[in-house]
Every structure is written in structure tokens, then in C-alpha cells.
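Sanity check record (used in CI):
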Amino acid sequence: MNQITLENIMLICQKCFSYLDARIDDHPSQVAYLYWRLLDNRGTYSKKELYDLVTIALLHDIGSYKTKDFDKFLNIDSPSYDHAIYGALFIKHFSPISHLSDIILYHHSDYESYESPYKPETSLLYFIDRMSIFFNYSWQIEDFFLSLNTEIDSQFISEFHEINRKENLIDNIQTGYFKQLLRNFFAKSIQSPENAIKYLSMISYTIDLRSECTVLHTIMVSAISNFLAQKMNYNHSMVQKISLAAMLHDIGNISTPINILEKPGKLTNEEMEIMREHVTITYEILENLGIQEVQEYASYHHEKLDGTGYPFGLKKDQLSIPARIIIVADIMGALMAARSYKESFPKDKIINILSELAAQSKIDQSLVDLVIDKYDDFCQYLSSLSNPYHKFKNEYMSIVTKMSP
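Expected output for HD domain-containing protein:
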């Protein structure tokens, strides 16, 4: 699979945040930039440790994809803790830097209220996070410093002033130049395919977990696509691309209102138009991945072989077999899923619907034949997979109970 760097991860995160709320568009990268410069100037971290910690800073508010509680999120005096809990769990269960999840969990907590092996790093992130949020209200940085009064904050203030004199940190943020500096830093961190897939899957889960039905659908489509790709005897690299594209195929749902995603009945024409926008947004977001095949496979999942699909109206000769796999997997996943308005369809009904679509030249007949031939094998394969959603949900409730006053 093509090389993916932390710069690709950063750009995808920025694009996703831009669809949520303009007020938080630059906040994650501001925090990551300042965190990087203060940690780097200490000279006590290896390159690997520095990349991991700055990535944590970039992702520190990734739980806000789930909560979307931005008024509390941006409130210096009374921040929301839900996004910190969700963010920590996303990092712990889905990322290659799970050992740093406590930094996110406690990044809004007072120094004396928790224990962690990364307490100094957590406290610094807390300081920088508040500084960045303060920038939403005023660029008078001294006003922010005057609002602080702890011994720990005083150490950070001195450290910040020293580095700001050398590197013009505030000027770089005001002009936007910090983004290029941060991109250059992350561009040098090439990720293994396994780690890249973990990061990207985590982003997909954080978006899909806004709605239980969407995250379960993504898990299902990814599993079906992986199974079919293996049965088509693709090599390991191509199976990775197809599985990754399937995992990311609905990333554009970040722009879709929850009331539409979870509507129990048929969508109105207006709601359907809004829903359909997620495909073009998926295409836009995945431009930042730098792997054209994955971008196309993921974004073509509502196309049809006869040209009646959307958003591009592609026809048979424009849709590769990997793209067709995800088209079939998306339909099959929807048919197999239980929703508030329907039960999971039985095997015979699913096969009949897929066969009818193939007969109408909507989807690939050879893939439908493969599904029919291997249907029982697939169901056995699916039952062997763990469902990360339920474990995640249970642990969230446990942490909320533990952290409640």
C-alpha cells in the first residue's frame, strides 16, 4: 500500500473538523504545534516519543466528533469532559498509541485529581489547550497569563516566553504559518500500513459512533469487503486497500445530521438530498490521503453498473472490481442490519434482492454469485469477529461512573 504519513492523518482530521464547527477548525493543530515546540525544546524525548506525543495533541479533541457539544467544549471556565472520555477510548482501542490515552482522558483535569505516568505531559497539554481556546476570545496573551496562578503554570509560562522569543510562536499562529511547520514535521513520519490503517479506522469510528447504526454498518461493510477481497485472491496489499476504503466509505457522514442518519422511516426528498451529500464529502476528505484508489473505491459505493447511481453516474467500464466489491458490501450490509424500522433480512431475501439487482445490471453478477456460494462461510467469518462497539460503550459508562463527583 502507498506510504501514509502523519501529515495525511493531520489533513484528514482538519478536513473533518472543518465540517463540524468553524470555531474549532484550527484548534487541534494550534495545540499540536505549541505542544511540539515546547516538548522539542526540552530535548528529553526521542523522535518516536515526540511524534507520538504531538499526535496525541493533534487528536486530543477527537472525542468531540461524538459529542458535538462545542459551546461547553470551547468554554475555558466550564469545559465538557465527555469528549475527553470518548477521545481517550478512541485512542486506547483503535490507535497505535494506546499507551498515551490517559493524556487525553485527563487533559481537562486539575493536576492533583488523577494519577498517570504521563502527568507532566498531560499538565502541559492542559495548559496549551487553555491557551489556544483563549485565542478564540483575545490575542492579548498576557491577559491569559494573568488568569493563571499555579506553580506549574508559572513554569510553563516561563518556558513559553523563552521559546516564543526564539521562534515567534504567537506570530506563527496569527499568520497561519504554524500549519506549514506542523505539516513539515508530520510529513517525515511515515507510518507502517498497519499503523496507518489503525489511525484511519479510528477516525472512521469516531465519526460513525455518533450513531450506533452507522458504526455497526461500517463494521459490517468492512468485514464483507475484506471477505470478498480475500475470496477474489487479491494480494495482501490490495486486500488492505479494499478493506480501508470500506472502513472509510461513509466518513462523509460527519456532515449528515443525526436526525437524518437515525430517522426511523423513509426520508423525504429534501432529506435524501442531504444524505446523498456524504458521498462527495467522503471524496473531498479522502483527497488528503494521497491514495487515489482508496479515495475512489470508498466514494463509488452508491454507483451502479448501469450509470443510475450517484454522485458521479459512473458506468460499468468506469467501476473497477474493488469498487464493485464495496458497492455489493454496502448493499449487503444494509440488508443484514437490524434498524429501528426493520429486522435483519433472512438469507433467502438478501440473496433474492442481490440477484435481482444483478439481473438489472445494477451490481456485479460474479460478485453476487460469490456471495451466494460463500454465504454460510461469510456468516461464520462474521461471527468470529469481535464487535468493538459494545466493549467501547461499556467502558465509557464505567469511566463516567468512576469520574463522577
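The longest strand covers residues 4-5. If this sentence no longer matches the regenerated C-alpha cells, the check is flagged for review.
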